[in-house]
Every structure is written in C-alpha cells, then in structure tokens.
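Because discrete structure vocabularies remain unfamiliar, it helps to consider an illustrative case, giving the amino acid sequence and backbone structure tokens:
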Amino acid sequence: MNGAGAGNNKQRLPRWALPALGYLISVACLVWVYWGFDWKREMGRLATTDWRWVTLAVMADIAVYLCQGWRWSTLLRPVADVGVWKTTQAVYIGLFANEVLPGRTGEVIRCYLQRRWSGLPLSVVISSAVLERVMDGAWLVLGFWMVSQYVKVSKTLIVGSRILLLLLVIAGVLVTLAVLYRGETEAALARSRWARLFRHVVGGVHSMGRSWSFARAAVLSLVYLLLQILPILFLMKAYGLEVTGWAAPVVLVVLRLGTIPPQGPGNVGSFQALSRGALELFGLERAEATGFSTLLFLVVTVPLWLAGFAALIATRMRFSEIHREAHEQMAEEG
C-alpha cells in the first residue's frame, strides 16, 4: 500500500512545473514580439495617441467587469440574493490575483470570497463559475464562426475552436443532466471514483439552471462578450490604425481562445503575441501591430491592477491570507 502511494508521488509533477512552463511561454513570447522592435519610434507614436479614445477604452473596460459582476449576481439569484457590488468586488480581486500569480488562481480566490460573503456552500459558488464559463465558451465559439465567415483565420485557431466546441458539448450534456435528472446524475457520479469529484456541483447547477435567471445570465454573457470589443475598437481609433471593422472582433476572439490554457501571470507575452498575430491578418506591419499590442495590454491591464488592488484593500484582508484560505477551503470541501 505504501509502495503504491510512493509510486504515485513519484509520478506526480512537482508544483513548480506548470508555473515554470507558464513563465517560459511568457518569456518566449516576449522575445518573439519585441525582438528588433524600434522602441524610440513607437514611443513617439504613443505620444500622439488621442487620449480621448483611450479614456473611452478604459471606461469600456470597466463596464466589462461590472457586467461580469451583474451576470454573476443574476446567476446566483435562485440560491442567494448576492449584491452586484460584492460579485464585482470578488471578480476584480480574482482578476488581480490572475495578474500577479500563475495558473488562474484568481478563479479559486473569487469563488472563495463569494462563499465567505454570501454563506453559500463552496460547491454552489463553483457551480455558478462553471456555468459562467460554459456561457462564455458558447458565445465565443459562435463569435469565432461568424468571424471566420469574413476573415481567413489560421488552422491553429480552427483546431482550438473545435476543441473548445467539443468541451462545451460535454459540459452542456452534463449541465442538462444536472438540471433535468438531478437524482440520477448524483447517483451515477457516486458510483464513479473519478467523477465523484463533480457530484457537489450538481445541486447548484440544478437550482440555477431551472430559473429564468439562467436565461438572463446567458443574455448578459453576450453583452459581456460584446463589451470586450469596445476597448479594442476605441484604442484602434486612438492609435490611428487603418483596419476594417472586423479587426476588433478578430483580436478579441484570438485573445480569448489563445489565453484559455493557464499561462504566466496576466498572460504577459502571450497577450502581445496573440494580438499582434491577429492584427497581422489584416496586413499591418510588424512594428505597428507590436506597438498597438503594447498599448492594448497597458490600457486593459493597468486599470485592472488599480481596481483590483482597491477591491482587495476594501476587504481589509491580506492577499496572502486570502490566497492561503482559498486553497485550504478548496482542498477541504473538494
């Protein structure tokens, strides 16, 4: 028995392996994006940027996360009356955590905070986060299909969208079973040692999926996706890019698909590489695409840092304390 346990421990990846891979990807992308980049020339162009459009982009980016908080509050309404401020605060703290820590730790932290503030079981909160991602993925796949009808996209993105579609179909089937056949689904999961990990979310999905709030949250998910186009579009105006109206949706779709796998903190490197690659589909030169990608990263990231830090200060808790308790709670109830 001990020998088997020791064998399993030997086969398990060390904790530092995945974060190290994320950092390696970030560094490789940064080198690829900025190798030979003329900083002096492009910094001069940034000085001529129309900051009125930049201000609108920042405001639109803030609206994105307010919409996400509104959607989360709406989705949780059948099980608890959670205010939009609290959901938005948890969202911003989770995003702040994703900016400073690898591996999408912010998802765990925002669920923990919501559980702490609302008193809901962690399994229910996790269920709502899973449903959010299913909705986002469904609209993203639809958006990718629409974009691909007008713009030639790479085979890598096509393969990625198909993998996402397959995962969504699987998730959709599981959600449907949880909503329509809760008892049978829980019984089936209880018989499987591996699937037993997911049995805790069935009750929450069942309650939320049978409510009209679910439909309203799905509509808000579309609004949430469309709002994310605005900061990109406004910054294109600010930077003076001469591209078609499809460029902003394409950049968004490429960024959303490309950053699904956990990477380094804040998707540094991969964000610039993906947005530059998307812009080059429209014939932009490398230097111009790189300069815009840098501006886009700063405009959507710096306000997020500030708002996330302010939301964290409002909790009167230390970040290290939240991080530790979130993972302890996840391990205890998972």
The CA atoms of residues 153 and 281 lie 8 Å apart. Residues 4-10 have pLDDT under 50 and may be disordered.
